[in-house]
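Here is the promised in-class demo. Please do not try to memorize the tokens; focus on the logic of going from shape to residues.
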């Protein structure tokens, strides 16, 4: 866990403040650059540099980057370059899910770890922008209203439909 409580003092967004999620037709600016923030925060807290880690892994996928500019490969490449330049240490950010839809990601999880892995993801991962862990759905915890919950729920339903 990375404590981002101080981030709101630098740049208020729906990521750190109690405010409504607003998305434009092409993007959700309230969450733009969250990947950069998380990579940078993680880097500062427990430096992969000190551990000799040269590869970071991100779980972005193509259905995300249609509405979230920070999930595009171009943005990830820029973050990778920034970390490499800033540290004078080669860093690679791998995005193995980038070309997969949410349904394909659920299918891959099932293929790799069976129902046990799917259950683990449902129970222990979280994408809701409202931070709601009080409501559990077939696809996991979330408000079921924000764009992240909508993407996850639709992908899960598509995967179940294809599986049937």
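The designed amino acids, position by position:
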């Amino acid at each position: 866990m990375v404590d981002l409580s101080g981030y709101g003092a630098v740049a208020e967004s729906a990521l750190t403040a109690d405010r409504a999620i607003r998305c434009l037709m092409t993007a959700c600016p309230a969450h733009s650059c969250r990947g950069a923030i998380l990579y940078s925060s993680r880097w500062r807290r427990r430096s992969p540099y000190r551990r000799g880690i040269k590869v970071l892994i991100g779980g972005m996928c193509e259905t995300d980057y249609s509405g979230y500019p920070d999930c595009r490969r171009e943005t990830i490449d820029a973050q990778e370059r920034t970390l490499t330049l800033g540290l004078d240490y080669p860093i690679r950010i791998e995005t193995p899910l980038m070309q997969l839809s949410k349904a394909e990601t659920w299918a891959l999880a099932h293929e790799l770890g069976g129902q046990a892995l799917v259950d683990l993801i449902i129970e222990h991962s979280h994408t809701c922008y409202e931070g709601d862990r009080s409501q559990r759905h077939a696809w996991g915890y979330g408000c079921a209203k924000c764009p992240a919950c909508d993407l996850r729920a639709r992908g899960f339903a598509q995967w179940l439909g294809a599986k049937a």
